[in-house]
Amino acid sequence: MKKTFITLNLLLSAVVIVSAQNKITPETSKPNIILIMVDDMGYSDLGNYGSEIKTPNLDKLAKEGLRLREFYNNSICAPTRASLLTGQYQHKAGVGFFDVNLGLPAYQGYLNKESLTLGEVFRSGGYSTLLSGKWHVGSEDQAQSPNQRGFDKFYGILKGASNYFDTKPLPFGKTPYPVKLIKNNIELHPKDDSYYFTDEIGNNAVTFLEEQNKENKPFFLYLAFTAPHWPLQAKPVDIAKYRGKFDEGWDILREKRIEKLKENGILQGNQTIAPRDPEVPEWSKLTYDEKQFWKAKMEVYAAMVDNMDQNVGKVLDELKALKKDKNTLIIFISDNGAQGGFNSYNPLNRGLVRNTGPVGTSGSFDYQEQNWAYLSNTPLQQYKNNMHEGGFSSPFIAWYPSQIKAGRIDKGTAHIIDLAPTFYELAGIEYPKEYNGVASNPLVGKSLLPVLFNNVSQVDRSAPLFWERAGNRAVRDGKWKLVSIYPSYEWLLYNLDTDRGETSNVAQQNPAVVNQLSEKYFDWATKTGVVEYSKFKLKTEVMPGGNPLKK
Fold first, then answer.
1. C-alpha distance across the termini of the chain, in Å
2. With 60 as the cut, is the pLDDT of residue 498 above it?
3. In this structure, are residues 311 and 202 in contact, taking their beta carbons and an 8 Å threshold?
4. Residue among 146, 91, 206, 131 at smallest CA distance from 526
């Protein structure tokens, strides 16, 4: 009897020791979450969505996880990030137009206190909160850096863009656009050409994960790449991979992407394809020199996407090394569609201001332009800042080993406002009704957990989805999409079940649907703080892609 008692004690001691070594607690059993966002990347620019660009790490996540055909953002940088970080429509969060203050609460240009960030909520729920990359929803003079809005660690830029090899001001006509590189509230001053920004975003994310591993907490990592946002700048080794890859031009490559999209199930057989953009010249009619000029742009753009994927790979390798890959949800999205417009139309003449080296080098300043954006947004219509599908449709990948069925492709019809409630439900965090003495705006999205884990094809949504940005408006309700593009107030109606290419306006055939959705839009606009864009009477210069800058 005494021997049995001693043996039992030894067994219990061994269990305690093993448990202590593995730190098995309720907190550490919670899932880790990584949210990856890229900037100005088109719907079909990933290999797993039909592209000729090599993205093996994201292709692996797609093969082992879920892709959605219909996932929506807010069509442009800052408003998308406002909704992503808060789970609110951007006006409700205070960033209705952009990161500029237009004098109204819904347009103050930075996040209000009523709209809690992912950092604030995850931190309140016992998570480590990490951010590497782009912020763009407020700056330090508004007490709006990531470290002030819930993130334990931050590396990156507070504003909307930067060079990739240096922190020199960006050329915006008479008013240079300042660039600051920040790490945890401290401004960094790296030597020119001593780094590549996309690599540093990845490197700092890896460092943050290594440091966080010492804490007995789950983590939330927001990995916010600026690639492939202008300026087109990439490392020579990455550009070299794509020499000659775009010699066929945007017309033939678009047809090849369409075939790949059909083969992989992203583009279904009954769906329409956006018509050819009449503003894009036929590749076959370009001169030899013109083809060389355009090919160089897309080779650099592809290199930027490729390098971003390499840095996703660094994070995946670190996750595996830390043995946290089995308990981590990863979501990948883009902040808007590829950017249209042409440099020759741009009063800021951005493509000619900083041009001390070939496209892709640290001395160049250029962007993809509409000709190649037409390829990037295949098979959808229009571009960034537009409410047609090409403007605000994002690739969507979700990966969680043993939790998400591998290789799934579903409809989804999901929106960035849905990510916050999804994450909080998965993490078991109750969204605070009050934070620091301020009543919180309630979440308006729907949890995507049934879609992610229960093989449900699309979100069960009782209310439509709504958009407004710079006078462009849209409503999505089931198969119907209502849209108008400023300065026109005409409502266009499309049946997206069969016409995602938005080739046939059926508004006249369905006046009751137009009236019903229009009424819902204006009710939403009133409740959300939307103001008619023309009332602002802005004097603007328009950057490519339709982003007005106040003079």
1. 89
2. yes
3. yes
4. 91
Give the separation between CA 41 and CA 28, rounded to whole angstroms.
Answer: 35
Question: Band of the pLDDT at 176, cuts 50, 70, 90?
Answer: confident
Q: Which pLDDT does position 214 carry in this prediction?
A: 96
Rounded Cα distance between 153 and 182, Å, is 11
Catalytic residue of the set 136, 229, 388, 415: 136
Helices (H), 340-485: 369-376, 389-392, 419-427, 449-453
- In this structure, what token pair is assigned to residue 407? 């290789």
Beta strands in 184-236 (DSSP E): 186-188, 219-224
Query: Given this model, what pLDDT does residue 171 score?
Result: 77
pLDDT digits (tens, 9 = 90+) for 38-77: 999 999 999 999 999 999 999 999 999 999 999 999 999 9
Residue with tokens 């309720």: 26
Tokens of 307: 């390098």
pTM of the predicted protein model: 0.92
Length of the chain measured in residues? 551
- Of 97, 121, 123, nearest in space to 110 by CA: 97
Residue in 467, 505, 472 with CA at minimum distance from that of residue 486:
472
For the question of residue 189 being annotated catalytic, the response is: no
Give mean pLDDT, residues 2-15: 37
- φ, ψ at 415 (rounded to 5°): -140, 155
What residues have CB less than 8 Å from 292, skipping those under 6 apart? none
Looking up tokens 């579903």 gives 410
If we measure between CA atoms, which residue out of 83, 70, 71, 36 comes closest to residue 468? 83
The token pair at 231 is 């300026």
120-134 burial, b at 16+ Cβ within 10 Å, e below that, comes to: bbbbbbbbbbbbbbb
Whether the CB-CB separation of 49 and 261 falls below 8 Å is answered with yes
Report the alpha-carbon distance of residue 219 to residue 423 in Å, rounded: 12
Q: Which of 357, 340, 343, 353 is nearest to 173 (CA)?
A: 353
Using pLDDT thresholds of 50, 70 and 90, give the confidence band for residue 365: confident
The pLDDT tens digits of the residues spanning 297-345 come to 999 999 999 999 999 999 999 999 999 999 999 999 999 999 999 875 3
- Give the least confident one: 246-250, 309-313, 514-518, 543-547: 543-547
CA distance 419 to 482: 23
Q: How many CB atoms lie within 10 A of CB 97?
A: 28
| Mean pLDDT rounded to a whole number for the chain | 91
Spatial strand order of the sheet with 32-38 comes to 186-188, 181-183, 153-157, 128-134, 219-224, 32-38, 328-334, 396-399, 66-72, 408-415
* Token code pair at residue 300: 């650099």
pLDDT value at residue 1: 41
Tokens of 187: 């401004």
User: 371 is written with which tokens?
Assistant: 């000709």
Q: What is the DSSP track for 320-368?
A: HHTT-GGGEEEEEEESS------GGG-TT-GGGTS-SSSTBSTT-----
Does residue 77 have an active-site annotation?
yes
418 and 447 Cβ atoms separated by less than 8 Å: yes
